[in-house]
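Holo model, zinc ion. Inputs:
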Amino acid sequence: MEKPYFNPKIETADIDYLDKLKLRRLKQTLKRVYEKVPHYRKKFEEVGVSPEKLKTLDEIRYFSFTTKEDLFVDYPFGVLSVPLENVVRVHTSSGTTGKPKAIFFSYKDIWAQAELIARSLVMSGAGPGDILQNSMTYGLFTGALVMHYGAELAGLLVIPAGPGNTERQIDLMRTFGTTCVHMTPSYALYVSQVLQEKGIDPRKDLKLKRAYLGAEPYTEETRRKIETLLGVSVFNCYGLSEMGGPGVGFECPVKKGFHIWEDAFLVEIVNPETGEPVKPGEIGELVLTTLRRESMPLIRYRTRDLTRLIPEPCPCGRTHLRVDRILGRADDMFIIRGVNIFPQQIEAVLMRFPEVGQNYQILLEGYDELKVKVELNRDMFDGRIERLLALKQELEDKIRAEIQVRPKVELLEPGSLPVSEGKAKRVIDKRTL
Ligand code: ADP
Ligand code: ZN
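Output:
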């Protein structure tokens, strides 16, 4: 397994030690928000809890959840727990509608998160000598800047490329000998398509070794496809602005779920309907409590992301728990003809087909119709119509078998669908019902 560690004492701490640390930090965090954030005090009083009553980690379940809506109380400074003069940075989430969530960082918060990233990168085998092309969006989005600081802390050379302008991205890779990239999986697929079209073989012409892909859900099938096309080892990285951005969960070389850094986050997985804990290993909503954040701690934050605990200890030697890749976002689920569907179920089927190219889109239209638009590899358009018809039929059958609803599949040439540089928009709902 990969060694060394960035912070071996914490990364391999025994469970007892970690539990004690978590409890101590949890109490401090609860006390901090109770004393400094009137909104939290009110919430705690409403359900009759107070920080000094908490004796064990499990008792966190008596405290109220925090949801997105809580972040809009006395917006934008309502849940700050330090004076404004101690805050040195603000990020906002990419939020699709309305006001963006505002997330604040103290100087300590910035470096605490950077340290989590540094641990994660070293865990993946990266370090001094590696050249990281950071192709996430720089700016209000946490993705790029937070990764940037962490990578520098771990001693990597960072190219602050930002997203888009794919030709320029490829030039940068060639000029500097980029060894690692950080981008969304949908953009990685697109980059691989452009490389193909330009006749560049990443294995021969580039020095890429690792791709850190996150910010949106993707399937194991997509990971494999990107690994093959780019000749890299893909590491899934998970984070959300509310928890300080990337660095919350990161895969180790075992690549069976991500480790969540437990000295920084308390993990719960709950039934999204009842809010009660699920059994270990069952799928539920990830709920996180920050244990180290100073300026804006959040208690039992409902991420809306679905996953499950991986109960077995990890052979890599790190003791921090693992959760499965995000199986879907509660917000992305759609219902068609009475069936609940996640876009990833369709993606998994598509990406198993070698004929399928790099982009797809799901359309809900008409009364309650499902259409899947999918780009194929260029060599599929050689005039052999019967081959396309057979593939269309097979895709429809396989998707039907997976989700119980028969879609209408539309096959497209590469480059037909809109490309996203940031998070991909996979589902478009134009239904008239
Ligand atoms: P927004 O909710 O507006 O997209 P963020 O930019 O903070 O705000 O994105 C965080 C969300 O992105 C997570 O809650 C999760 O749904 C998704 N996400 C981030 N990384 C991953 C990943 N590796 N796998 C799946 N989903 C991810
Ligand atoms: Zn591990």
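The first strand starts at residue 87 and ends at 92. Residues 70 and 79 are 8 Å apart (CA to CA).
Archived with the compound record.
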